[in-house]
Amino acid sequence: MILALDSATSTVVLGLATPGGKVLAERIQKGGRGEVLPGMLEACLTEIGSKASDISEVVCGVGPGSFTGIRIALAFGHGIAFRRTLPFRGVSSLCAVLHQAGNRIALLDALRGEAYVRAGTEGVDLRWKLEEFLPMVNGRQLIAEGRPDFEAQLPSGWSPMSRAMTVRGILEARRDSSTDPVPNYLRASAPEELRSGK
């Protein structure tokens, strides 16, 4: 089985799936951080009558997002993979969201008037000043998450990110990714990459 998990956003997701991508069990918890991951894994294993030794691969969201959430999920996933030398892959958390949300832009509050941005599953994760980025949206649908003052700046019609963070999205992102499980904190901005369409 594949273990898929992410706690980079305020929605913690963990699930088990077949190598072909069929989700066998899934737990999604709004709020909290990675401290809930062990209990979520135990519940999933119990639900399908399996053991941790049945896990053959680990896929983990690497961010961008919460510094603490990213590190906890990676430490948890790495601990399981390292013990039995399992394949351990990282995926963009924003890309996982967009695989479930369709042709939208993922926007996550990065504090200080900035946002983590991903404009498509083929693109890259960026960090952008919100006041500079929003005029470029041009009617595209946003799926977003942030503090109330962040969300108040968004155009009407945006969707909450919590609705799109799922195990299926993580698995879809896995198909497109060869990313090492390294934390993606996106400390530096790179707006020219989105302007050039890369």
Break the fold down into its secondary structure elements and pairings.
Layout: E1 2-6, E2 11-17, E3 23-30, H1 37-48, E4 57-61, H2 67-83, E5 88-91, H3 93-101, E6 105-111, E7 114-118, E8 126-129, H4 130-133, E9 142-145, H5 148-151, E10 159-160, H6 167-176, H7 191-195
Parallel strand pairs: 1-4, 4-5, 6-9, 9-10
Antiparallel strand pairs: 1-2, 2-3, 6-7, 7-8
Helix pairs in contact: 3-6
Structure description:
The protein has 198 residues and is an alpha/beta fold. It has 2 domains: 2-93 and 169-176, Nucleotidyltransferase, domain 5 (2-Layer Sandwich), CATH 3.30.420; 98-162 and 187-195, no CATH class. Helix content is 31%, strand content 26%. It contains 7 helices and 10 strands. The chain has helices at residues 37-48, 67-83, 93-101, 130-133, 148-151, 167-176, 191-195, and strands at 2-6, 11-17, 23-30, 57-61, 88-91, 105-111, 114-118, 126-129, 142-145, 159-160. The strands form 2 sheets. Strands 3-2-1-4-5 form a 5-stranded mixed sheet, sandwiched between helices. The longest helix is centred in the middle third of the chain and has 17 residues, at 67-83. Mean pLDDT is 89; it is low at 193-198.
Which features does this protein show?
single chain; 198 residues; alpha/beta; Nucleotidyltransferase, domain 5; 2 domains; 5-stranded mixed sheet; 7 helices; 31% helix; disordered C terminus
How far apart are the termini?
A: 34 Å
Adjacency order of strands in the biggest sheet? 3-2-1-4-5
- What form results from the Cα inertia axes? elongated
Based on secondary structure, the structural category is alpha/beta
Element-level helix/strand string = EEEHEHEHEEEHEHEHH
Contiguous uncertain segments of 5+ residues: 193-198
Largest sheet data: 5 strands, mixed
| pLDDT averaged residue by residue | 89
Instruction: Supply the CATH superfamily name of the largest domain.
Output: ATPase, nucleotide binding domain
So how many helices? Answer: 7
